[in-house]
Amino acid sequence: MPEVRFQIVWPDESQDSCYSPSLIVKEYFAADTEYDLVDFVERSRTALNIASDRVKAKYGFPCGLALGQLQEIEAKAAKFAQSKQPKVKFIKFNN
Question: Which terminus has fewer CB within 10 Å in the chain: N or C?
């Protein structure tokens, strides 16, 4: 399956490189675009669950890396949940 990495900037200006085992994330995000935190998490949840399901359909088991990435995104997002209008900037796809 074609995998993709993407870079984001959190509300505190820290950056992360994220992973998806599927190009489906390209249908949910656009490079150089800012998303409200809640919207970013919802888009991530949808895209990464679809990606994991695609791995399951092909190999018979869900993608632990996709689900782990989602957990990391949700955990980090929780730190900013009380911030005033938190935004996540989607920088780019790396491949």
Answer: C
pTM for this entry: 0.94
Q: Which long-range contacts (CB under 8 A, 24 or more apart) does 82-85 make?
A: 83/11, 83/37, 85/36
Strand-by-strand arrangement of the 4-9 sheet: 15-20, 4-9, 87-93, 33-36
Cα–Cα nearest to 20, from 53, 60, 61: 53
31-73 pLDDT per residue, tens: 999 999 999 999 999 999 999 999 999 999 999 999 999 999 9
